[in-house]
Amino acid sequence: MWDQSGFMLRGDADDPLTNSKWGAQGWCRPSCIPITVILILIVLVVLLPLLDHAGDKHSSNSTFGNDPGSTCMDSCKINLVESIPIGLVYANNSVQHRSTYDSWMELIASAQSSIEIAALYWTMRRQDVYPDDSAKEGEDVFEALLEAGRDRGLRLRFAQNVPSQLTPNDDTEYLAKKANAQVRSLDFPRLLGAGVLHTKLWIIDRTHIYVGSANMDWRSLTQVKELGLVAINCSCLANDIAKIFDVYWKISEDGKIPAVWPDSLATKTNVSNPMNFTLGGNKYKAFIASSPPPMSPRGRTNDLDAILHCIDKAEKFIYISVMDFFPLTIYTPKTKYWPIIDDALRSAAIEHKVHVKLLISWWKHSLPSADYFLKSLAVLTKSYRNVKIEAKRFIVPTNPILDKIPYIRVNHNKYMVTDSVAYIGTSNWSGDYFISTAGIGMVFEDVGNKNEESIRQQLEEIFHRDWNSQYAHPLNETYVDR
Fold first, then answer.
1. Residue from 205, 305, 324, 342 carrying the catalytic annotation
2. Is-catalytic flag, 316?
3. Domain check: are 49 and 156 in the same one?
C-alpha cells in the first residue's frame, strides 16, 4: 500500500505490489516497482496540471460566456440610462433613454437577497445639502433602500470613501442603524497617499448591475446630467464586476492593500480575453477594467489601458464626453504633466486620420486652463491632410435660484464611443483618476454585423444629440467669463 506522501509501505497481504506471489515468481520483477513509481510521478507532475488547466479554461468559458453552450448571458438585457437636469430640454425627436431614478428604483424592487453599492459619498435627502423639492427622487431611493433592509430583510453592503466634513456619512449611518446595512470606508490618503473611491457601482443579487457617472446624491437624479449602464439578468458581468466590489470590501476590512491578492479576486476576462456574447442580435466582446493599478488583482485590465485600447481600435472616429479633460495631475500638491491619453488622441488623428471630437463640461467649478489644452488639440486640425480634432464645451443652463444649490448644473458624463467600441466609465480624464483613484470602465466592442440597437450605436446617438444641441458651445465663445 501507499502512505500519504506516495511512498510504498510493507506488510499489506492484499497489495499486489507487496504480496510475494506477485514478486520475483510473478509478472512483476523487482525493477518494475521503481518504474511504476516514476510513471505515477510523471502523471502527477505533467498530466494533472494540464488537466487542471483545461478545467480552468472550461470554468472560465462557462463563467464568462465564451463557451457557445454557456447560458449565463442568455436572458441578459443592457440599457443606457440618463439623468437629464430639470430645465435642460432637447428637441422632441431627440433620442431619450430611461432615467437613472426609474432604473435605480426598479433595481431595488427586483432585489431578492442583496444590494451592494460602492460610492464616493451619500447625500440622498434634502436636508443633506439644500432643502429643495427636486430632492424627492433621491429621498424615494433612500426610503426604498431603507425598506429593503428593514422590512424585506435584504443584505445591504455599502463601500464608500472615508467621510469628511464636505461628504459626511449621515445617510449610511442611518441605514446601518435602521436597515442593518454593513458600511465600510476606504481611506485613500492612508492607503495610497492620495485619491478617493470615485466608483459608482450597484450590484443586485450578483445578477443585475448599474455602472455610470451618478453619485449617491439626489442632485445626480434631477440637477446633474449623468449617463450610465444597467444590465439585468447578466450574471457573467455581475459576477466579474462583483470582484471589484470585493476588492474594496477586503481593503476596507484589512486597512491595507495586500502584497498578493487572493486567487478568488482574480479574473480571466480582460482586454486580451474578453467575454463573448450575443445580445439583441448583436455580437459583443466585453470586459471590465478598474483603477488604480495597485487595486487590480491578477488578470484585471487597468482602466487607462482600456481607454488606450479603445482609442487604438478606432479607424474612423473617436467621440469623448467627460466632465474634465487634462493632460495633468490636478489634485496632487505639485501639478505634473501627464500626456498619456492626450498623446494617444494626437497619434490617432495624425497617424491614422481618425476624426476626434471632445465634448468637455463647463460649469462654475471648471478650471479655465483646460481650454488651452483643448485648443492645443483642436489647432492640429488641417495641420496635415485629413487631420481633424474638434472640441466643444457642454453647458447645463442655470439661474440664480438654482445656483443656491451647491455642485449642480453640470454634464457629469464619462464615456467614449468610436466606430467599433463603446466605453462607459466612472472617472474624469486627468492623471489623478488613473494613478491613485478607484474607478471602473466597461468596454463593449461590436463584432460582426451591427444594427441600430447596439450599445455602441446608442452611445453614438447620445453624443450626436449633445454635440449638435444648443448646450454645446465652441471653445472661442465667451462662456469662460459667465
1. 205
2. no
3. no
Instruction: Say which range, 65-74, 143-152, 225-234, 406-415, has the weakest mean pLDDT.
Output: 65-74
In the set 250, 268, 355, 412, the catalytic residue is: 412
For the segment 171-195, the average pLDDT, to the nearest whole number, is: 97
Q: Are residues 257 and 178 in the same domain?
A: yes
Q: Which of these is catalytic: 200, 225, 250, 309?
A: 200
Averaged pLDDT of the chain: 88
Name the residue with cell 495624425. 350
52 Cβ contact partners less than 8 Å away, ≥ 6 residues apart: none
Residue at grid coordinates 431627440: 94
* Catalytic site includes residue 205: yes
- Catalytic one of 128, 171, 198, 217: 198
148: domain CATH number is 3.30.870.10
Q: Is the same domain home to 56 and 197?
A: no
DSSP-derived secondary structure letter, 45: I
- In the chain, the N- to C-terminal Cα span, in Å, equals 88
User: Which residue is catalytic, options 67, 132, 187, 419?
Assistant: 419
What are the cell numbers at 427?
472617472
Residue 3 lies in a domain: no
What's the confidence (pLDDT) of residue 19? 37
Q: Is the pLDDT of residue 71 over 90?
A: no
**Residue-number span of the structural domain to which 47 is assigned:** 31-64
412 tagged catalytic: yes
* 329 in Cβ contact with 432 (< 8 Å): yes
Side chain identity, residue 198: H
Q: Identify the DSSP state of 263.
A: G
Q: How many CB atoms lie within 10 A of CB 123?
A: 23
CA dist., res. 236 & res. 76, Å (int): 9
From 414, 432, 446, 466, the catalytic residue = 414
**Residue whose C-alpha is closest to residue 308's, from 295, 318, 300:** 318
pLDDT tens-digit map of 203-239: 999 999 999 999 999 999 999 999 999 999 999 999 9
% of the chain surpassing 90 pLDDT: 79
Answer for the pair 113, 148: CB distance below 8 angstroms, yes or no. no
**Total domains in the fold of the chain:** 2
Task: Supply the pLDDT for residue 30.
Answer: 52
Q: Quick one: CA dihedral 294, 299, 304, 305, positive or negative?
A: positive
Smallest CA-to-CA distance from 328 within 295, 367, 360 is with 367
**76, 211, 238, 410, 476 from 216: Cα distances, Å:** 25, 12, 20, 16, 35
Look up 419 and say whether it is catalytic: yes
Amino acid letter, 312:
D
* Cβ atoms < 10 Å from Cβ of 119: 22
pTM score, two decimals? 0.86
